[in-house]
Amino acid sequence: MPRYPDLSALRAACAGLPAGDAAAEAAVRARQDRLTKPAGSLGRLESLVAWMARWQGRPLPALDRVVVLVFAGNHGVTAQGVSPYPPAVTAQMVANFAAGGAAINQLAGCVGATLRVVPLELEAPTADMTGAPALTEPQFLDAVAQGEAAIPAATDLLCLGEMGIGNTTAGAALAAALFGGGGADWAGRGTGVDEAGLARKQAAVDAALARHPQARRDPLQAAMALGGRELAAILGATLAARQSGIPVLLDGFVCTAAAAPLARLAPDGLAHAVLAHRSAEAGHGRLAAALGMAPLLDLGMRLGEASGAALAVPLLRAALACHAGMATFGEAGVSEAG
Question: Which of 109, 187, 247, 259 has the fewest beta carbons under 10 Å from its own?
Answer without folding.
Answer: 109
